[in-house]
Amino acid sequence: MSNEPWEQEIDSLKTQLSQFKELFLNQIAAKDYDSIKSDGLVDILKEASTLARRAEAQNDPDIDAIVQSVYELHKDGVDFAHGPADVFEYMPSFAHDDDASIVRDRHRTIGVMDSFFQFMAAYIKRKPDGSLPNPTPSPWKKARQPHPKTTPLSRFRRPFPVSANDETPLAQTIYQARCEIYGHNIHSPIKMEMSSGSSCLAIIGAGGWKNRDPKVTLYFLDELAENPLHDGEHFTPQLREPATEVVLDEGRKLLFVGDSDRVKSYCWEKDEEGKPFSPVHTLRSKKHDGPLAVHSNGRILRAGKGSALVWNIDDLETHREHNKIGEGQYDTSDTWRDEDARIEPSPGSQPHLTVDFPDPNFAIGTWHLHQPSGHMFCSESEINTTKWGCVEMDLQAGGRIVRRFLGHAGTVNQFSTSEADPNVVLTACDDGFVRMYDIRRSLPILTFDVEGQASRCYSALLTHPDGIPTVFTGGTRSEQVKVWDVRARRVVYELSSGNTAVQAMAWDTQHSTLYAATECMYIDRFGRTVGYRPAEKPNYREYTDEPSEKASDDESIGKSDDAEEGHEDAADDDEMEEGEDDDEMEEGEEEEEDAMEEGAQALEDDEDQMYQDASDDDEEDGDDYNQRRWPRKAHHGENFYGRVYDAAANMFFQYRFKADPDMDVMLSSGYATLDDGELW
């Protein structure tokens, strides 16, 4: 029998959850779909989150037990939602505080809605003039760009008082998207990692016949800053299969890559013969196929289910002294690689230490070293367990769980921290949300709805240019990079990724550069483009910025492009976070926003020339539009940005933010062919 009040609340919520499950399954069995209320599940999980938040605020002595109980209830609900019942494909947020702590971007971009609206035209309510509402966003407008040096491959939301200004010049260049964008083709990306000193960046991927070979591309960032067109140093590790994990040791100039049962290291400095990537170590990590980490104490770690392996790097045998490392034999025949593939046969060095976790079923999917504390932020692997946990772990204390972070409905794919605020961590999750946590609390302080419950989010970054907290998020289905103003709780703008899904990102503080590794979803494993149609050439002269007659003068804050164009469902596209009201804006903010609107209007005075400039920019490539192609299922239309750009390949992008970027730096579209439109 439960004695504590919080235990009684948990028991009550468990009962409600059981009743919801039973009712839901009965309604499905009876095909009573009209009676199904999926939101009831979310309400139960929200109440549990409220219980944990209240307990933390009151410094309840049972807080650890309360958080654990709430996590178990959350897990039960999420498992049901994602299980055979299929309540949600992507769970709504259930751990955010209702006080405007969820940040949404309701700006519509999905180009495939055009065909849906055409199909449903007979059933859709028309405007008073008889026309159909526009399902897609209005075309790109140069007048919306805040600076003459803003890249045309960006798209801004309506002006609002951003946190950057003339007193924060670096932040202002970022918030105005003043950048040069470079890109080149890469193998299918798996992970990207930057060294702790920001001197080197590595991308591991899959290439060769049917993407069966491990591939590594290494970039020396000082050299890349001098020559952004350099496509990096490439090599093929002598592993049995494509590498799934990578980590860099800045001090020893070592690159560690791991497949399912071994880890190999390579020196990125040139050897006596002038060759880079000489092999150094081979580590045996059988049954430990999780992420790698280099600790500041000179150890390399690899996670597995229930434990982590530890090697002292300076005590390991090296290939400089031994051709073969480790005792016994290693089977190189069990591989999908070609028969002539070079697979080094060393079994590898045994670990010096094994750290057994308190929970033998705890399997780490990804982790991140928190330098100030020496702890690891860890997510549980969805593949190896049915859990959705996210914790702070002290490995030096035997894997003790320091804190559990609540609210995830999928595997966390990336953690991000910033030296400017060591008490904050950012998570990018499979449920499509990015969450910001104060590491002293278990519930998120902010939740960013990146993918609108439509896809996963693989990468998000927290940085502080000029001390201003800023978040970059990478879109998968949405195929872009968004920049979020944390203080204003708004999306500032998005950057094009050439119709490719963002798999990984890294922020280079020294060079004020955002790197992104992206995957093109419109190529098959043989590298052939699929699902393309002829591209349409935007005519920017056709579009105006005239507001709808229904739009009032005070609707200048928080409205999307659709609202500006007078679309009937403009309210749904409101970019403000939940609970915010225009009438509650401070007077000073209104005056500042009015001034920004006046500045935007001044830019529109020479509108015809602006649209002509946009068309001219798009033609400078010399490309013939009769030869251009565009993915049928692309998230954006050709007119969404100021230039028509489609990568048609897996890409490595560099967004180099500068006070005075070279506007002649232009990306050229990749080569794509027409086909029957079927994706493999």
Automatic annotation (TrEMBL):
SUPFAM superfamilies the record matches? WD40 repeat-like
UniProt keyword Repeat, yes or no? yes
> Biased-composition ranges for Acidic residues?
562-624
Q: Where is the composition biased (Basic and acidic residues)?
A: 537-561
Q: Which UniProt keywords apply?
A: Repeat, WD repeat
Quote the InterPro entries the UniProt record gives: WD40/YVTN_repeat-like_dom_sf, WD40_repeat_dom_sf, WD40_rpt, WDR55/POC1
- Renumbered residue ranges of the record's region Disordered: 128-162, 537-631
Protein name listed in UniProt: WD40 repeat-like protein
Name its species.
Somion occarium
Q: What is the lineage of its organism?
A: Eukaryota, Fungi, Dikarya, Basidiomycota, Agaricomycotina
